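Q: My labmate handed me this sequence with no annotations at all. I'd like to see what the chain might look like in three dimensions before we decide whether it's worth expressing. Could you predict it?
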Amino acid sequence: MLRLVWQASNVNSALQIPDERTHTAYVRVREGLIQAVRDIHPEYNEVSEQLPAIYEFLKRFDTVISLNYDLIVYWAMTYGFDLNDQHSFKDCFVSGQFDENWQRFRDSISFRDRSSTLVFYPHGSLILCRNNVEQELKINAQGVELLGSILNRWKSGQVIPLFVSEGTAAQKVSAIRNSYYLSTIYREVFPAPKDNLTIYGWGFGKHDTHIMSKLANAEIRRVAISVFRDDQAYCNRAYHIVTDILGPIVQVDFFDCTSNRCWNNGA
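A: Here is what I predict for the chain of 267 residues:
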């Protein structure tokens, strides 16, 4: 919605077509989104103590695919910048733009980089935006300044956020195909071969069936799925979805999402 109104407003402005209603609609949607983010997104200082645990959890994986729009994963990545643990997180953006040869980031870039984790946002993220010439960019700022910098960029009207807010799976796929970054993840990252898959905090909703369908080509042999409070109904539903799409020979294991060393839980 925001993108369509923003584009219409920009076109009318470029053609010098008076259209106060379109511009007003864009401003209202934009301000509503900014206020919603301010209301629900935690500040950096509210989560900073949890970032070391989240960082240690995420670094165990070769690839992290985050379906959340928030900045938690990004903050956890940047927490590790000053650590000398010979591990690197890479989102495949260079100078603010996504590198289409994302596979090259698997390779070490220095003697301090003996292992790495690639991070992708298949539904977009607050850290990502489009400018008025349709370039897709990563907003540059760190730590306490990041959330404020993002909202200020939105408020300037020079960029809009890059994330998928559509409802159904078909609508999400349509929105994904309108983005080079998102469509690259959908076409290349999801189906890339991987033996094991860990799913943490995902509800397996009908609106995300497009994700499992893409993973069907990834040759996955084992899936570990987090479950909250021994929810057997969820386990049964998740098991059937995974085995129906990935095949009956896939090994499916469930684990308690509050287990030690999971996400921000105790060590």
